[in-house]
Amino acid sequence: MILNNKVIKILIIINLLFLSIILFSKIHFIFKIIGTLYRCILVPIIISVFLFYILKPLNNIFNQKGISKGISSLLTLIISLIITSLISYFFIRYAILEFNGLAKNINNPIPNTSTTTSQNPINSIVNEIYRSININKLIKIANNIMTHYIQKFQSNPYENINSIVEVFSKILLVLLILFFLLKDGSKFKDKFIDFFSEKYKDFLSETLYNMNKALNAYVTGQLMVALSLAIMIYIGYKIIGMSNALILASFTFILGFIPFIGFFIAMIIPSLIAISNGLYMIIKLSIVFITVQTLKGRVVVPLVMSSALKIHPLTDIFLVVTAVSYGGPMAAFVVVPLYAIVKVTVLSLYKYKIIKIR
């Protein structure tokens, strides 16, 4: 009878939860508010926290030199902005030429092989692959999308000004949040714990410590993994003679922050270019892909990430794939550390017997 009562209580709670979700789904303005908060506040906070863990080692160096926290935080931001601006300046100058070459490689995938098909079976195979995936149709769709947005940009200058102002306001918000995280990040934990009674302080202190450790391990580890991937793939592209190696490696670096699937997404454009250059380039690119993926799985990830998050790789894959389906790239980036935070919290709840297992 006791078991039945417990089961009934659990079922009632689950049903009430689903009923609440259904009721909230009928109130459209709530979702509009949530969407606005997500775009205007939550995304800048996520970006700020990500940058905080990257810049924290530099900020700690200034603090260890005896510089006040306010000045050290400001110096960290200034140095980071200068370095980012210089890298962006030189990279953009080179990227313009690379993008032009990349566009030519994609828009002119395969030369006319009608006169040599019978003499060259490799060209015949590549030509059949090209026809089956219909690259020209994909290029046409991409050009139509770009044309649509360019026309939209030219036809509504007032809306474009608002968009530019919104972008700059978000950048400013990220910088402000980042400054205060660098300046007062160590105080947030103590101030948060002070809101609760003495009974929960040990639990909260350990939980927040483990959360900070998990986030730091994930962000710094994912940065090193993405950078390692970009360097290895750039070297591989140079060895096999792949054009536009720097731009393609940059895409790998950016998408490398999305666990597991990011690297595969980054290989789409190189694969199209390889198809345009023939079967020999496809084979060479496949070798590079397999080599880099093997080094990532066997060397880079175990060495950099270690077992800091203590999450099984299969769990990571399911989390990322589900997050991409429902929330896009941002959700894919956030879901793994969010899962680690939830896991740390639940383990602490059991450890301090706030949740009891009977």
From TrEMBL:
It is a multi-pass membrane protein. It is found in: Cell membrane. The keyword Transmembrane applies. Keywords: Cell membrane, Membrane, Transmembrane, Transmembrane helix, Transport. The chain crosses the membrane at residues 6-24, 36-55, 75-96, 161-182, 215-237, 244-266, 272-292, 299-324, 330-350. It comes from the Bacteria. Belongs to the autoinducer-2 exporter (AI-2E) (TC 2.A.86) family. This is AI-2E family transporter. It comes from Clostridium moutaii.
